[in-house]
Amino acid sequence: MIEPLPRLSDRHFREIAELVEQQVGIRLPENKRLMLEGRLQKRVRALGYQDINEYVDRLFEDDHFDAELIHLIDCVTTNKTDFFREPFHFDFLRDTAVPELLRKTRGRPLKIWSAACSTGMEAYTIAIVLDDMQRSGVGFQFRILGTDISTGVLQLAEEGIYTREMIAPVPEAMAKRYFLSSKDKSRSEVRIVPELRRSVAFMRMNLMDAVYPVDRDVDVIFCRNVLIYFDKPTQSKVVERLCSHLRPGGYLIVGHSESMIQNQSIKIKQVQPTIFKV
């Protein structure tokens, strides 16, 4: 039986909370302390430290900080995602956004950006919807970019391997078309088909950065269920930066609990409760 590690001291909790908010914009109030301790325990044991407080002390040493920061961020970020999560967004993409955008693209590929893409389910859902439109006879090309701050989830996204339970929200016909079953029948796993994986590129990126290494003529940006973790000033700055990468007439789609951005001083028009247009 694994013995629990000593609790995180008040000072060390404040140091970690301040660092996380500074680096990724995520606030860790006191009621998140137990969550933080639980998520860090595995990392502390892997590095062989006596306790979590020793880990925090070592973290801030110059020769250790840069390398360990990536692992710390992986521990504290929340990566909840699903295929076809908030499905009305994908209905809007298929029925409204893409037809409208195609009338203006003049043959160039559509560019879709899944910001905070986690394990890739959102990006691959977009790819499934767009590929299905192509198969129905709509002639266009598309490129999808998925970005996230967590290296761990990006690796999973690039592999495109999921359990059968994870793809339960995918319509049956699409699941048969876009997922390959594992040859090992004892493993309840599927993998995104290669041609769909090739349509999505993944890249590590921090939404707190002042500059995003992304094209400035993106047609649609999905940034869902991440803004809620930021305070109001940070939300405003992130939304402003995201919108600067949209071409005129492009769409920003946020999560169901994030329609608060309509109250901010950004020149975007709300077309539905969580869908905005520049």
Characterize the structure shown.
By secondary structure, the protein is α/β, with parallel strands linked by helices. It folds into two domains: 10-76, Chemotaxis Receptor Methyltransferase Cher, domain 1; 88-158 and 196-277, Rossmann fold. 41% of the residues lie in helices and 18% in strands. Strands 6-2-1-7-8-10-9 form a seven-stranded mixed sheet, with helices on one face. Strands 3-5-4 form a three-stranded antiparallel sheet. β7, α10 and β8 form a beta-alpha-beta unit. It starts with 9 loop residues before the first helix and ends with a strand. The model has no long low-confidence stretch (mean pLDDT 89).
Number of domains: 2
Can you tell me the CATH architecture of the largest domain? 3-Layer(aba) Sandwich
Order of helices and strands: HHHHHEHEHEHEEHEEHEEE
Largest sheet: 7 strands, mixed
Low-confidence stretches: none
CATH level-1 class of the largest domain: Alpha Beta
Largest sheet strand order = 6-2-1-7-8-10-9
| Helicity, as a percent range | 40-55%
Q: What is the mean predicted local confidence, pLDDT?
A: 89
Distance between the termini: 56 Å
What's the count of strands?
10
How large a portion of the residues is in β-strands, by DSSP E?
Answer: 15-25%
CATH topology of the largest domain: Rossmann fold
Shape type: globular
User: Radius of gyration in whole Å, from Cα?
Assistant: 20 Å
CATH-assigned homologous superfamily of the largest domain: Vaccinia Virus protein VP39
Output the number of helix runs.
Answer: 10
**Secondary-structure-derived class:** alpha/beta
